[in-house]
Amino acid sequence: MGKKKDEEDSDNKFGEPAQFDPNFRGLIQKRGCTDIICCVLFFAVILGYIVVGILAWLYGDPRHILYPKNSTGSFCGSGENKYARHQNVHMKDFVTSHFAFSSLSETGQTCSTLTFSNVPHVQPNSGLWCIFCSHVFKIKVIDELFQTVRQIVDQELCPFFYIPTTPGRRTFKYCVFLKLSLTFSSRVSIRDIVKGFNAKEIGVRIFEDFATSWPWILIGLLIAMLVSLLFLLLLRFIAPVMVWLLIIGVLGAGAYGIYHCYWEYDKHKKNSATITDLGFTTNFNSYLQVQETWLAFLIILSIVEAILLLMLIFLRNRIRIAIALIQESSKAVGHIMSALLFPLITFALLLVCVAYWGTTALYLATSGNPIYKVVALNSTNGDCKNVNGTVDCDPTVKCPSASCIFIKYNNEGLFQRNLFNLQIYNAVAFLWCVNFVIALGQCTLAGAFASYYWAFNKPADIPYFPVCGAFIRSLRYHVGSLAFGALILTLVQIIRIILEYIDSKLNSAENGLARCIMCCLKCCFWCLEKFVKFINRNAYIMVAIYGKNFCVSAKNAFSLLMRNVLRVVVLDKVTDLLLFFGKLLVVGGVGVLSFFFFSGRIRIDQSTFHSENLNYYWMPIITVVFGSYLIAHGFFSVYNMCVDTLFLCFLEDLERNDGSEQKPYFMSKNLMNILNKSNKTPKTGSKKK
């Protein structure tokens, strides 16, 4: 009586149970568009996002970041910069010839500065040779039209000076004047060039390993897919055994821990030292030599073990229900195999979002022309006091420690002045789109698996193409609801990002109170994000079934779950335990197999692949392990969504129906047997599967 009264009080606190509806037969077919305002707002943001991307594409040029420029201002390997493909063409002249130059490096390095007051007035035919000049420059034209080198430079037909650079860095325009007998202390930094060879060589070797082993990597990923699929399909048969083995394993580990703590406690009885005698020390092993430490461990483990035993005794029936739902989920996946392929669509849409965000951010970051200023690396020198980073780069600066560095991209124009705001818009729209894609996948899978549960005769009453039907319904009617839930989650994530940014600024702060408050805020919003994800997930299930708006669906889902909170906790933990074990089985098993194969411990006769030819055998192993985890996560996320959907349908079924002829249960016979329920008079011509 007490238990029944508590359940009634709980029902009243979290709303009345769902009432029987004679017209309800599972998924609502006649539905309308939900959360239209949020739908319009979402499409407006998407339209604005497209406009931002177009503007970024028009004004930005990622080649400023991705590719180096040569002395003529051309990007290496493109346009008129044909000689960039032959990096050593003029190396002989650079090393053996005498030449004069005055330079400030854009790379941040300080190059030697030499004065040559007579050079600007030297005639072109006086033993000078200009290389890397304008493509319209001809020596015979110089002889006919120009009297001095100064006139050539003023007409921008020839670069003014030369800067030695390494690949991947930019330089100013330069001109090399050969046959002028001047000495200098700095030459081309060959050593800096050689430094880059090691990383490049490693990259080439890794690429060679992938080129050699990619068929076997694909085979490893295929094995991971087959093992994941086999594990999910076999759960209908092995779920009870696995769950009880895991529970017994946890209890057994706790019992062994109690025994070991008692054994250590008894062993250190003769030791007279106490924790008080030790005080505070960073040597943890010192505490393990004290009897009181093992006594504390013994008490804690005993309490935890007792709690687990009591939970097992009082929740055994709910554990059986959780196992039955897991088995039923395995059957549902077996009947709707196309659901296992749907994560590929979600993954492809996420890739599109990430690619668009990254491309837009890159183009926005490179909008405008780069601005370089002269700065003094050593301002104590008398000639460097006036060098304050406000003067454009000039090779005649007298400061010996002067360097020309990149400051920023110019902000002239309305678009350039709002680049920061556009980057914020890019980030917010990206988070919203990503969360919407995930919500779309969850709602689609929920609709497909709900159609399985509410089919009275399984599998005869399951609609054709349930995944496609659920996907179309979600896009046709519920874009607004999905965008609403995604927006709430996005706002929480933005707050978390802001907190992370503030925390990074407070890392050097000595204020312990501020650090403590920041840590508490981060923890609270982390929990809030998890809670919002949980509510959204169940709200999307209710949206897929009943076609109501997001707020109503979230309220109904939360009330339904709170009326069955113990079942929720048990099912959630049992499912998490099983899926964790499944991921461990797939990733660990395939990882060990790939280790033995790529390290040469397993050999295949008549195979063209030889592990000893690999430069780094661990790279294919890491690739297989990471890919196996993604595959297992994709399969198990579908399964987890199936469990959650069937669980909500099961709770609704219990509240709506009573097993009579007018209100028969839709659940499987296995679930009805566990609950001691049955359909008293089955429908004519119907037979429960």
Automatic annotation (TrEMBL):
<feature type="transmembrane region" description="Helical">
    <location>
        <begin position="429"/>
        <end position="456"/>
    </location>
</feature>
<keyword id="KW-1003">Cell membrane</keyword>
<feature type="transmembrane region" description="Helical">
    <location>
        <begin position="540"/>
        <end position="558"/>
    </location>
</feature>
<feature type="transmembrane region" description="Helical">
    <location>
        <begin position="477"/>
        <end position="499"/>
    </location>
</feature>
<dbReference type="InterPro" id="IPR007603">
    <property type="entry name" value="Choline_transptr-like"/>
</dbReference>
<keyword id="KW-0813">Transport</keyword>
<feature type="transmembrane region" description="Helical">
    <location>
        <begin position="36"/>
        <end position="59"/>
    </location>
</feature>
<keyword id="KW-0050">Antiport</keyword>
<feature type="transmembrane region" description="Helical">
    <location>
        <begin position="214"/>
        <end position="234"/>
    </location>
</feature>
<feature type="transmembrane region" description="Helical">
    <location>
        <begin position="241"/>
        <end position="259"/>
    </location>
</feature>
<keyword id="KW-0472">Membrane</keyword>
<dbReference type="GO" id="GO:0015297">
    <property type="term" value="F:antiporter activity"/>
</dbReference>
<dbReference type="GO" id="GO:0090422">
    <property type="term" value="F:thiamine pyrophosphate transmembrane transporter activity"/>
</dbReference>
<feature type="transmembrane region" description="Helical">
    <location>
        <begin position="618"/>
        <end position="639"/>
    </location>
</feature>
<feature type="transmembrane region" description="Helical">
    <location>
        <begin position="578"/>
        <end position="598"/>
    </location>
</feature>
<protein>
    <recommendedName>
        <fullName>Choline transporter-like protein</fullName>
    </recommendedName>
</protein>
<dbReference type="GO" id="GO:0016324">
    <property type="term" value="C:apical plasma membrane"/>
</dbReference>
<comment type="function">
    <text>Choline transporter.</text>
</comment>
<keyword id="KW-1133">Transmembrane helix</keyword>
<dbReference type="GO" id="GO:0015871">
    <property type="term" value="P:choline transport"/>
</dbReference>
<keyword id="KW-0812">Transmembrane</keyword>
<keyword id="KW-0325">Glycoprotein</keyword>
<feature type="transmembrane region" description="Helical">
    <location>
        <begin position="336"/>
        <end position="357"/>
    </location>
</feature>
<feature type="transmembrane region" description="Helical">
    <location>
        <begin position="294"/>
        <end position="315"/>
    </location>
</feature>
<comment type="similarity">
    <text>Belongs to the CTL (choline transporter-like) family.</text>
</comment>
<dbReference type="Pfam" id="PF04515">
    <property type="entry name" value="Choline_transpo"/>
</dbReference>
